[in-house]
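Hi U.,

Before I forget, here's the chain from the pilot set. I'm dumping it here mostly so it's searchable later in email.
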Amino acid sequence: MSRVGKMPILIPAGLEVIREGDKMMVKGPKGVLEEKIHPDMKTTIEEGVIRVERPSDNRFHRSLHGLTRTLIQNMIVGLTDGFQKQLEIVGVGYRAELKGNVVAFYLGYSHPIYLVPPEGISIEVPAPTQVVVRGIQKALVGQVAAKIRSFRPPEPYKGKGIRYQNEYVRRKAGKATV
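Structure:
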């Protein structure tokens, strides 16, 4: 039995969970999230608890069991607390600037890089070298943060670039003189 899949999901007060065919919809104070669930997975919603069960013990159903539970849990957490990723910009002259809803990144290129966040994502720049990506969809927050990091990934010699907060960048030694 999947350790993740067999755990019940608690529904906090103020959220409404609806299963219609192969779609699971969660409504809350921050919005509405909808996720397609595999039709073989059985979900039972009762008294503030959701349980996910699999029809058989074959490999395919075992792989879907924990995934389905985690997708539903992420929708509930997103609508109650939300998700965020923090990024740090390291390098002389490297910075980010918020202009309206557009973020401008100055990363040592001959031009600034402009990013318009997708719908459902908010980007904050508390300091010129810090960027915070917030949203209610975990996958979308991670995708936008990864895109920002891809503008200038951290390099191993001086550690310059954009990295996640508390990310360890493995450093290399420079040229050895003989």
